[in-house]
Amino acid sequence: MKKMKKTLALILGLALVMGMLSGCGNKQAEETKAPAAAASDAGESKTADKETAAAGTEGTAAGPEGAAADTDWPTGSVSIIVPASAGGGTDLLARVLADKLTAKLGQSFVVVNVTGAGGSNGTNQVYESAADGSSILFYHNAILVNSLTGVTDYSYADFVPGPHVVTDAATGFYVKSDAPYQTYQELIDYCLAHPGEVTMGVESGSFTWLMVKSFEAATGVEFKMVDVGSNSEKCTALLGGHIDVMPNQYSTAKGYIDSGDFTALGFPTEERSAVYPDVPTTKEQNVDWLYNGYEFGFWFAPGTDPAIAAKLDGAVKELFDNNEIQDDILNLGNEGTYLSPAEYSELFGDISAQYKELFDAAQ
């Protein structure tokens, strides 16, 4: 219903409605911590209120921290929707934040894993949830990719932004330790000699898919893409020999690297990671390929009271100001980086423009 109203409001025509509704997909929710409050049905009148609120804040979504946090939220359990499976980097970060927010705000923040469709099943759930702060999205740049590739018919700008909490630039390609290529240049040479033979594990239409497309465009190689699911599922596929290469977060692959099963080819960055200084960069290997890492943060359903977003922002900022969370994030192999909702939204705007340019060039 909300998409139909949004479509009419944007005067896209009745002919688009069926296509938008068919794109919602089936939601596969897997709760992995404790029973979470089910997303409530907004109902006819609440949906109208949400659309009115969203329209009233259009173009100013980046400013909830400017609102006075005059709200009694949260009044009950809050579901943190993670569009990734349990055990991966996104999930582990969300659980650290859930524990800290539970202690600080006095209500249970419960991680709920909603997998599938390149993360869009999870983002759909929050997009269509009641605008009361009972469900919050915790995710990263894949929101931008899904919008760009048409997996979703909404963008990050349709959500009410919360704070940014983590930058993970430690993302690159990984192979088995007995693979015939142990550096980026060796991988490039092998792929050029065997076009389309090397299998690359991705999640179609997601962040990792665009990452691989950018590598192909920069180097001229061609992979055989295999959709194997989330980051943790990529590790399982690589370990089992079902794929030859995977893009992933170092934090997710670290256990396999420590055991000697995987080799990290390096990070597509200008400088080495402060968290993993032993891992080389593409620049050091004379490979002309750079790609920004994950930018994690919170997003609320369209029409959510800015005071709710402001209250979450205040709680998260206190966690960072008081050094209550940085070590826990670092222990997961990530860098804690607080940004206000306005700064986070601006950052996504910049990355979205970069992705569009990359996507257009890859067509």
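The above is record 1. Record 2 follows with the same two-line structure.
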Amino acid sequence: MEAYFLTIVGQKHYYGMKPYKVGRIVKLIKEADNEFDSEAIRVDLPFIGTIGYVANSTYTVYAGTYSAGRVYDKITDYAYARIAFVTHSSAIALVVPAEEAEKEQEINDNDAIVF
């Protein structure tokens, strides 16, 4: 699997930066019916729901990362990513194989997310 780094934005519309922790696995879900962006990819956490979106604008995509549009056709209806870096207003995540993420999710099901 080729490595895809993504910029995650939109946190101010949800829970801010509190859910973001380096190493945490997030779920990427395509939103084909999104009225604002036909290539929208939502970022979710179990038990919390949406915590942001994969950036899809030249103004918000960090250099060296993929936009939602560039990765949209490279993933199935959903994929997983591991948070690699956290800034004051966004995060960078690395897309990881589903098998790896799902196995890790099983192990960390009791990992409480504390705000």
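The mean pLDDT is 88.
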